[in-house]
Amino acid sequence: MPKSRIRKKADFTPPPATTKQATSIKLGNRSWVAPVMLALFLVGLAWIVVFYVTDGSLPIKSIRNWNIVVGFGFIAGGFGVSTQWK
To answer: Is the pLDDT of residue 19 over 70?
Structure first.
């Protein structure tokens, strides 16, 4: 059986460099993000733990099981803030 010819591909050569210089982008100081994110996570976790440990009498007795939603709301807020972390 005859062999097919192997085609040689041309080597990649990058385009010549242009005279443009890269502009630096200042991202700003985001040092507040990590502490706020961790604080929201911990407050949400503590809220849910306190609710379960006290059998629903704390943190806010009048909203009963909605305390779980409030705790998860804090945790979701922590995830929302985490999107600002660079």
So the answer is: no
CA distances from 35 to 27, 31, 40, 43 (A): 18, 8, 9, 12
Nearest of 50, 32, 22, 42 to residue 86 by alpha carbon: 32
Tokens of 21: 């210089």
Question: What is the pTM (predicted TM-score) of this model?
Answer: 0.67
CA distances from 29 to 18, 33, 80, 82, 85 (A): 32, 9, 18, 15, 10
In single-letter form, the type of residue at position 75 comes to I
